[in-house]
Automatic annotation (TrEMBL):
<dbReference type="GO" id="GO:0019632">
    <property type="term" value="P:shikimate metabolic process"/>
</dbReference>
<dbReference type="InterPro" id="IPR036291">
    <property type="entry name" value="NAD(P)-bd_dom_sf"/>
</dbReference>
<dbReference type="GO" id="GO:0009073">
    <property type="term" value="P:aromatic amino acid family biosynthetic process"/>
</dbReference>
<protein>
    <submittedName>
        <fullName>Shikimate dehydrogenase</fullName>
    </submittedName>
</protein>
<dbReference type="InterPro" id="IPR013708">
    <property type="entry name" value="Shikimate_DH-bd_N"/>
</dbReference>
<feature type="domain" description="Shikimate dehydrogenase substrate binding N-terminal">
    <location>
        <begin position="16"/>
        <end position="97"/>
    </location>
</feature>
<dbReference type="GO" id="GO:0005829">
    <property type="term" value="C:cytosol"/>
</dbReference>
<dbReference type="Pfam" id="PF08501">
    <property type="entry name" value="Shikimate_dh_N"/>
</dbReference>
<dbReference type="GO" id="GO:0004764">
    <property type="term" value="F:shikimate 3-dehydrogenase (NADP+) activity"/>
</dbReference>
<keyword id="KW-0028">Amino-acid biosynthesis</keyword>
<keyword id="KW-0560">Oxidoreductase</keyword>
<dbReference type="GO" id="GO:0050661">
    <property type="term" value="F:NADP binding"/>
</dbReference>
<comment type="pathway">
    <text>Metabolic intermediate biosynthesis; chorismate biosynthesis; chorismate from D-erythrose 4-phosphate and phosphoenolpyruvate: step 4/7.</text>
</comment>
<dbReference type="InterPro" id="IPR022893">
    <property type="entry name" value="Shikimate_DH_fam"/>
</dbReference>
<keyword id="KW-0057">Aromatic amino acid biosynthesis</keyword>
<dbReference type="InterPro" id="IPR046346">
    <property type="entry name" value="Aminoacid_DH-like_N_sf"/>
</dbReference>
<dbReference type="GO" id="GO:0009423">
    <property type="term" value="P:chorismate biosynthetic process"/>
</dbReference>
Length: 307
């Protein structure tokens, strides 16, 4: 049941363009209601040309406590903040902003954290493994950073970026390589042979007619695939990988696993801890009916290669 909105209600915004299909407001408002938090999240459609003005003006409202930033605005936030976390600085993008008690605006990026927690949720190994990331955009950069953070003991050993836009993968790889000891490279081919994990961070798959970002028939038998897309799931890529008997997962869990990070960042540590224990109610909101069976019994990764 939704809570009444009063003059004491704390407000969180989700600016994007478009916002018709955004899922996070439903998720946040479900958490607010479940834990009795007097707060609400509202999506707002803001064109790129107006974003900076909207962002600054919105925080003039004293009961606006923060924002979660939707595409295409993530790269436009960094220069509008007083400070931001390492991931946001390296990826040059932000997906969450909070107002501190002294009025400062801080931001960070949790795409990578959500992906790692999703991999752990499904038992998909990445520590010490070889990973191919298809795409070199904001989410791909955040995922790459999270995968290698901590070095080869806690992170992936080898990260390869592939993007069809010339120089884009090389730019991301060079940016991350300056911070970490793991091997981070750009590759000219999307050939999946020799990788333990393939991550689709491209928009390919939003339409059934899209070309496949990778040939799953060439993936190693032990390898896993994670497709970060949220729409049109299971995508043709996920379906093809599963048809081959590979462990392939859709992007829903990456979004869900960011929720504890958001709530901890916004100052609700007890709620974050509770979410870590049980987020079934959020999965019931996000997963389409055809994939609901995976909520109760997720397909786990079973291989001698598990670390």
């Amino acid at each position: 049941m939704s809570q009444p909105i009063t003059g004491d209600t704390q407000v969180y915004l989700l600016p994007g363009d478009p916002v018709r299909n955004v899922r996070l407001p439903r998720m946040f408002n479900a958490v607010f209601a479940r834990f009795g938090i007097d707060a609400v999240m509202v999506p707002v459609q803001v064109p790129v040309r107006d974003f900076a003005v909207h962002f600054r003006a919105s925080f003039l409202a004293h009961n606006l406590r923060g924002m979660v930033i939707a595409p295409p605005h993530k790269p436009r936030v960094v220069d509008l903040l007083d400070s931001c976390g390492l991931c946001a600085r390296v990826a040059e993008s932000v997906n969450v902003v909070r107002r501190t008690d002294d009025g400062q605006l801080e931001g960070d990026l949790f795409d990578g954290d959500g992906l790692l927690d999703a991999l752990d949720h499904y038992g998909i190994p990445f520590r010490g493994k070889r990973v191919l990331i298809l795409g070199a955009g904001v989410s791909a950069a955040a995922i790459g950073l999270a995968l290698v953070e901590g070095g080869t003991v806690n992170g992936a050993e080898y990260i390869a970026f592939h993007d069809t836009v010339s120089g884009k993968a090389a730019g991301v790889a060079a940016q991350l390589d300056a911070f970490f000891d793991a091997t981070i490279v750009a590759v000219d081919s999307n050939a999946p042979e020799g990788y333990d994990l393939v991550i689709n961070a491209t928009p390919l798959g939003l339409q059934d007619a899209d070309a496949s970002p990778v040939d799953v028939q060439r993936m190693d038998a032990h390898a896993a695939l994670f497709d970060i897309l949220l729409r049109n799931q299971p995508t043709p890529l996920v379906r093809a990988a599963r048809a081959r008997g590979l462990h392939a997962q859709a992007g829903f869990e990456m979004l869900i696993q960011q929720m504890p990070h958001y709530f901890r960042y916004f100052g609700y540590p007890e709620v974050a801890d509770a979410l870590c224990e049980d987020m079934t109610f959020l999965r019931e909101i996000i997963y389409p009916p055809a994939m609901r069976a995976e909520i109760a019994a997720p397909i786990r990764y079973r291989s001698a290669n598990v670390a």
